[in-house]
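From: lab user (bench 3)
To: helpdesk
Subject: output format question, protein + fe (ii) ion

Hello, I'm new to running complex predictions and I'm not sure whether the block I got back is the full result or only part of it. Here's what I submitted:
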Amino acid sequence: MRFFVPTDIYVEKDCVKNHAKNMLAIGHRALIMTRRHSAIANGSLNDVTEVLKAGEVPYQTFSEVEENPSTDTIGKAAQIARDFNADFIIGIGGGSAIDAAKATALLLVNPDLNADELHKAPSHPLNHAPVVAVPTTCGTGSEATPVAIITNHKIHLKKSIPHVIFPALALVDGKYLATAKKQLIVNTAVDVLAHMVESILNVKSNLFNRMCPEYGLKLWGECKDALLSDEGCTATNAAPARETAAPIDASLYEKLMLTSTIAGMAIAQTSTAVPHGMSYDLTLNVGVPHGPAVGYFLAAYVEVCAKFVPQDVEKILALLGLKNIEEFREIIRKLIGTCTVTREMRDKFAAAMKVNHSKLDLVPGKITPEDIDYIYEKSLIVG
Ligand SMILES: [Fe+2]
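Helpdesk reply: Thanks, we reran it on our side. This is the complete output you should expect:
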């Protein structure tokens, strides 16, 4: 058994300021990658730039990272990094910004690699420039994983790139959640739940690496009442709710961030499984954000896995403080609502999933095509 996360991770209030020396030791010229607004609003960009200014480390900011970062954006950022002679990349934001920072760090030191070739398996492991991750959402756990999910619009593909890129340093501070909308926190928390459930219901799960998802599920269970506090909001893929809800209790920010990072450490060992494999089509074709796109499939996946590893499903439910799978399904429905697609879409997604062996081979039992159909039927409304 092995447990491998080579990232230096700090989780605490004022983390960036407290560990300025660690960040300044990573490199001499930085490209900062963010979304357009959130890193300014939550104060994370200011925290990072203050440290760089005080340490006299020149930096340039690239704030064009979009949700589901594209190969085009990565190619552009890498060229800017090269022109600026950057020797490290700082990703500030959710999974999009950190994943984009990872992919840019790879291109930066491999100038012969074209951004459109990011999804091609390399003949040998490639080096990358060091990455500093400053997460500002409690979702992807990208600060603790080697994974970067990148979209190539030219070939209609959203997928992780086959390169191992752990950040050198992760500075995790729950205070950045203060300006996040409630529904964003809920959506990302559902992604975190999926990371931990898919890590346990996974052939790569073992006694050693379970320490992360098992502890994380307990923490998530302690946050669930706060996440559910706007009962009556009904989110759907057409109408997200909680856009104007009161922010979540500040005392939970650090716990939510910690859970997200722990869940990242979990999938760094096992990778994600079938619900994540199913989610990418929903995001790419229907525009559903990542957390709900995964969450819609989660209860049915748990139900199918209960045939193979009932004791693991029991354990997951117990750690979350839930009585049965129906209660698990109901909580997710309250958090993210329902998703409606056309029958044609659902059948097309199911057909693609039936040959997605990179995810199917992780199921801890012999999953059948009928099981796949069942998950789609149970998870998506046809309309
Ligand atoms: Fe995810």
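A quick orientation on your result: The CA atoms of residues 189 and 358 lie 25 Å apart. Let us know if anything else is unclear.
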